[in-house]
Write a structure and sequence with these properties.
This protein is mainly beta and 845 residues long. Helix content is 15%, strand content 40%. It has 14 helices and 36 strands. The protein has a 16-stranded antiparallel sheet, with no helix packed on it.
C-alpha cells in the first residue's frame, strides 16, 4: 500500500512573563508533501497523549474536542483550535501536535509538558499569627499546578492583608525553587517586606459652614489622625473601614444635625511621608431642615396620639433621620432593643402578633426648610404560633427545652417572648448560645412555625484546683454533672456514662491538705420540682475536719469538725418579669471542737440553724461569655434570736465570768445580708467587646451586742479561691492583694463583719466556639473589709488594676490567669499590695 508520511509540527508557546492564557500564533507548521491550495480529507484513526503524569489522557482528549473517527481537512485550523482549548486551561507550559499520515488515515499525538506543581506554599517575613492568617486567606492547596494567575492573586491578597494592618507600602516577592524530592514540583515562598506601618497623619474636612470640623472628624470613629487628643485611639488607616463605614458615619452625623442633603463631593488620600498619609474630604452640607407635620396612615390598633408620644418628635425639631428610624424600629437590632428595654413602634406591633407588620416613612420637603413625614404602615394580621420544632438536643430531653419556652403553640407570636426564650435556652449551658438562631416560617396567613436547631456542647465539669489560705495549700477535686436524670438511675441502659437529660445538677467535691485538713461536700439541684413548674429544689450536705497534726506529730487528738446540711425551695416569678426568682432555704451547722486551742473554747459544740431568703433577677444572655443583661440578688440569712427568748435573761457579756464560752456560743445567733449586682453592656456593633460593672456588699449583724457570732464573717484579698473554709468564713477576692490581706483580725480572731467591693472589666473574646471559649480582660477593682458597722466607709477602698486571660476548654474547664497591681497599703504590713499573679484551674469533659 502506497504510504505517504508527513510530520506536522504545531508548536505553541507562551512568554513566561505575559501571564496571558491565550493561544500563541507564532507556531510553525511543516507540511512538505501537502498541497496547501487544495486541502485533503483525512480520517482520524487514533489519538494518543504523551508527556503527562497527573491528568488522565482521556480527559485531555475530551477537553480538546478531538474524536477518533472524525473526518478533517488538512491543512486547516481544526487541530490548532483544539490545541488552543488545551492551552487555555493553563495546565501546560508547552502544547504541540504531531500528525502522521498513512493514506487517508491520520494518527495524532498530543505532546504536552505539564506546568510544575507546588509541593509547599510558604510565607516569610511575617510573624507566626500573620502567617497562619495569610495562608488561611490564600486558600492554596499543595500538589496543584502552578499558574501565573494564582501567584498574582496571592500577592494581591497578601498586600490587602498588610494594608488592613496599616502596612500600606508592603512589598511581596515570589521565590521558586525546585523540590529535590519530587519530580516537576516546586516550593513557592512569598517574601513579605511590610515596610513601616503607615498611620493617618492628617484629616481635613472642608465645605462645612455650620458644623465644626472637629466634630465631623470625631464622627469617623475608626479614621482618626495622630494627635495628642487621640493618643489612646488608633490612627491606623484601613481603606475598607474608611470607604464602608467612616464616610457613611460622616454623612449620618451631618444628617443627624438637620442637613438632610449632606454629601461628600470629593475625597483624596495622599502620602505625607513613608509613615504618614493625609485624607482630605470636601463636603456639601446643604440646607438645614426641620420637622413640620407628622402623620400616620394605616394604623387602626393604636391612636395617632399614642404613636406620636412613642415617637417623641415634635413640630419644629431639627430633622434627624437616624433617630427617627431608631424610634420607629427600622434598621435596629431587635434583640439589642428588647434586651435594653427600648420600645419602638415596630416592637409594639411585633410583640402583639403582627409578624408581617411593615412601615415606610415618606418625606416631603415643603416651605424650603421643612419636611412633612407621612408614616405609612401595614399592620397585617395577627399570627398565632402553629408549632415549635426543636432539633439537635440529642443528650437533653425534649421536655427540658420545651418547658423553658416562652413561645408556645396556640399563643400569639410575641417577639419579646422569643428573645426571652433564646436567653433561657442559652442559660441552660447545654447548647452553644452562638448557634441558637430561630427559624421563623409562616405556614399560612395567620399561622407561623418556629424552629430551634440546637447545637449541644459539654456542660459537665471535672475540677482540679488549688488555693492558698490560712498559711497552707489546699488541693480540691470536684465533679459536677449538670444534666443528670435521677428517674433513669436504675435503668442500666441509661448509664452512658451516667443517666442524663433532665437538667438536674449533682456536685461532689473533695478538699485536702494531707493530714491537716480534709473536707467533702455533696449537693443536688432539681430546677423543676415535680416537672410542672419552675420551682428549684436543692439539698446539700458537707463535712470538714481540721487538726493540728503534722508529719512529725501524726497522732494529735485536737480536732475541729464541721457538719452541715441545707434544703431549699424556690419559685420563678412572673412579675415584675420572668427573670425574677425567689428562693428560701433552711440549714444546720454543727461546729465540734476537741482539745482545740485555736478558738474561743477548747471543747464543745456550737450550733447554727438559719433561714435564708433570696430575691434574684438574672437576665444574662449566656453563662460563659455574657454580652448583655444583668444579675442582681439580695440575700438575707437569719438565725433565731436565742438571747431574746431567754426567760432567765442571762448575762452574755464577757464580764460575766460565771458563763463559759461553750455556754455562751452553744447556739449561734446572727443575721447576715449579702447583695450583688453586675451588668453586661456590649460596646461595639459586633457585640464582642463587653463592659462589665459589678458591686458587692455584705454585712454580718447581731441581735445582742454581748453575743457576737464568731462564725460566718468575711475574709478579703487575693483571687477568692483558697479552697479552704473554716468557721463558715466567706472569702471575697480582691486582685492585686495577698489572700486575706484586707481582713481585720481583732478579738479572739473574729473576722470582718462588713465589706464592699466594686469591679469594672472590659472583656474581648479571642475564641468563641462550643468546644472552647477564650477571652482577655482588663479590670479595675476597689474594695475593703471592716470589723464593725461604724467603721464602714464605702469610699475607703483599696484599689487595684490589672489584665487577665480566661479559657474555657473541654479538657481543663475554666482556666484563668490574671495579673493585678494593688495601689494601697495593707494595714497589717503597711505595704502596698503591689504586683500579684492570680490563677484558677478547672476541667470540663
Amino acid at each position: 500500500m502506497n504510504k505517504i508520511k508527513a510530520l506536522l509540527f504545531l508548536v505553541f508557546s507562551m512568554a513566561a512573563l505575559s501571564g496571558a492564557a491565550q493561544f500563541n500564533d507564532t507556531s510553525q507548521v511543516v507540511l512538505p508533501s501537502l498541497d496547501y491550495s487544495n486541502p485533503r480529507k483525512y480520517n482520524i484513526k487514533d489519538i494518543k497523549v504523551t508527556g503527562v503524569k497527573y491528568i488522565s489522557p482521556e480527559l485531555i482528549i475530551n477537553a480538546s474536542g478531538l474524536r477518533r473517527g472524525d473526518s478533517v481537512y488538512l491543512p486547516s485550523d481544526y487541530i490548532s483550535n483544539a490545541l488552543q482549548l488545551l492551552w487555555s486551561q493553563r495546565y501546560y507550559s508547552n502544547v504541540r501536535a504531531i500528525v502522521t499520515l498513512e493514506g487517508d488515515d491520520a494518527f495524532l499525538e498530543i505532546a504536552l509538558k505539564e506546568r510544575p506543581r507546588v509541593s509547599v506554599w510558604n510565607v516569610e517575613g511575617v510573624g507566626t499569627g500573620d502567617k497562619t492568617e495569610i495562608l488561611k486567606r490564600l486558600k492554596l492547596r499543595e500538589r496543584t499546578e502552578l499558574s501565573d494567575y494564582a501567584l498574582k492573586n496571592s500577592v494581591d491578597i497578601i498586600k490587602r492583608y498588610c494594608a488592613e494592618k496599616g502596612f500600606l507600602n508592603a512589598q511581596v516577592d515570589i521565590r521558586q525553587q525546585n523540590d529535590s524530592l519530587l519530580d516537576n514540583f516546586v516550593i513557592v515562598t512569598f517574601d513579605v517586606d511590610k515596610k513601616s506601618r503607615v498611620k493617618i497623619g492628617r484629616v481635613r474636612v472642608t465645605g462645612n459652614d455650620n458644623i465644626p470640623e472637629k466634630k465631623l472628624k470625631t464622627a469617623m470613629k475608626k479614621t482618626r489622625e495622630r494627635s495628642l487628643i487621640n493618643i489612646f485611639k488608633s490612627a491606623k488607616f484601613d481603606r475598607n473601614e474608611y470607604e464602608n463605614n467612616s464616610k457613611h458615619e460622616l454623612i449620618d452625623y451631618m444628617q443627624g444635625r438637620g442637613f438632610r442633603d449632606a454629601r461628600i463631593l470629593s475625597d483624596s488620600i495622599y502620602a505625607i511621608n513613608d509613615k504618614r498619609i493625609g485624607i482630605d474630604i470636601n463636603v456639601d452640607e446643604g440646607q438645614k431642615y426641620y420637622y413640620r407635620n407628622i402623620s400616620w396612615v394605616g394604623n387602626t390598633k393604636y391612636s395617632n396620639e399614642y404613636l406620636d408620644q412613642l415617637l417623641g418628635i415634635k413640630k419644629g425639631d431639627v430633622y434627624d433621620k437616624k433617630t427617627m428610624e431608631s424610634r420607629l424600629g427600622l434598621g435596629v437590632d431587635g434583640t439589642k432593643a428588647l434586651m435594653s428595654g427600648i420600645v419602638t413602634v415596630s416592637s409594639l406591633y411585633q410583640n402583639d402578633g403582627h409578624l408581617t407588620y411593615m412601615l415606610e416613612p415618606v418625606e416631603t420637603v415643603v416651605a424650603g426648610d421643612s419636611i412633612d413625614i407621612e408614616l405609612r404602615m401595614v399592620e397585617g394580621k395577627q399570627f398565632t404560633v402553629n408549632d415549635v420544632i426543636i432539633s439537635g438536643n440529642n443528650r437533653t430531653n425534649d421536655r427540658v427545652v420545651r418547658r423553658e419556652l416562652y413561645v408556645r403553640p396556640g399563643e400569639l407570636y410575641d417577639q419579646s417572648m422569643l428573645i426571652n426564650t433564646l436567653n433561657v435556652i442559652g442559660s441552660l449551658n447545654h447548647f452553644n448560645p452562638e448557634a441558637i438562631v430561630p427559624d421563623i416560617q409562616p405556614v399560612s396567613d395567620e399561622l407561623v412555625d418556629i424552629r430551634f436547631d440546637l447545637e449541644e456542647q459539654a456542660s459537665d465539669e471535672f475540677e482540679v484546683s488549688g488555693g492558698w489560705g490560712s498559711g497552707m495549700f489546699v488541693a480540691s477535686v470536684g465533679v459536677s454533672f449538670n444534666n443528670v436524670s435521677m428517674r433513669k438511675f436504675f435503668d442500666r441502659h441509661a448509664w452512658r456514662p451516667y443517666p442524663s437529660g433532665d437538667n438536674q445538677q449533682l456536685k461532689i467535691n473533695v478538699q485536702s491538705n494531707g493530714i491537716y485538713y480534709q473536707a467533702v461536700s455533696f449537693s443536688f439541684v432539681e430546677p423543676w420540682l415535680g416537672g410542672k413548674k419552675p420551682n428549684p429544689f436543692s439539698v446539700s450536705v458537707y463535712y470538714s475536719s481540721e487538726s493540728d497534726a503534722t508529719y512529725f506529730n501524726r497522732h494529735s487528738k485536737a480536732r475541729f469538725r464541721t457538719i452541715g446540711a441545707s434544703i431549699g425551695l424556690g419559685k420563678r416569678l412572673a412579675w415584675p418579669d420572668p427573670y425574677f426568682q425567689v428562693m428560701g432555704s433552711i440549714s444546720y451547722q454543727a461546729y465540734k471542737m476537741r482539745d482545740w486551742s485555736y478558738f474561743l473554747f477548747r471543747n464543745g459544740i456550737a450550733n447554727t440553724i438559719s433561714l435564708t431568703g433570696t430575691l434574684s433577677r438574672n437576665s444574662m444572655d449566656q453563662i460563659i461569655y455574657p454580652r448583655r443583661g444583668s444579675e442582681i440578688y439580695v440575700k438575707l440569712a437569719l438565725t433565731p434570736p436565742y438571747s431574746l427568748f431567754d426567760k432567765h435573761k442571762k448575762d452574755y457579756s464577757e464580764s460575766n465570768t460565771s458563763m463559759s464560752d461553750q455556754e455562751r456560743y452553744r447556739w449561734i445567733e446572727y443575721y447576715k445580708i449579702n447583695s450583688m449586682a453586675r451588668f453586661f453592656v456590649p460596646m461595639l456593633k459586633n457585640n464582642k467587646l463587653v463592659f462589665m460593672a459589678k458591686a458587692e456588699f455584705g454585712y454580718l449583724g447581731h441581735y445582742n451586742p454581748n453575743k457576737l457570732s464568731p462564725f460566718e464573717g468575711f475574709s478579703m484579698g487575693g483571687d477568692g479561691v483558697t479552697g479552704y473554709n473554716l468557721y463558715g468564713v466567706e472569702t471575697i477576692g480582691l486582685r492585686g492583694y495577698d489572700e486575706n490581706a484586707l481582713t481585720p483580725y481583732v478579738n479572739n480572731g473574729i473576722q470582718s463583719k462588713v465589706y464592699a467591693k466594686y469591679t469594672a472589666e472590659l472583656r474581648y473574646p479571642i475564641v468563641l466556639q462550643p468546644s472552647s471559649t477564650v477571652y482577655g480582660l482588663i479590670f479595675a477593682e476597689a474594695g475593703n473589709a471592716f470589723d464593725r458597722w461604724r467603721d464602714f466607709n464605702p469610699f475607703d477602698m483599696k484599689r487595684s488594676v490589672g489584665v487577665g486571660l480566661r479559657l474555657n476548654l473541654p479538657m481543663i474547664g475554666m482556666f484563668g490567669v490574671e495579673w493585678g497591681y494593688g495601689f494601697d497599703r495593707v494595714p497589717s504590713t503597711n505595704k502596698r499590695g503591689g504586683s500579684q499573679i492570680h490563677f484558677s484551674l478547672g476541667q470540663t469533659f
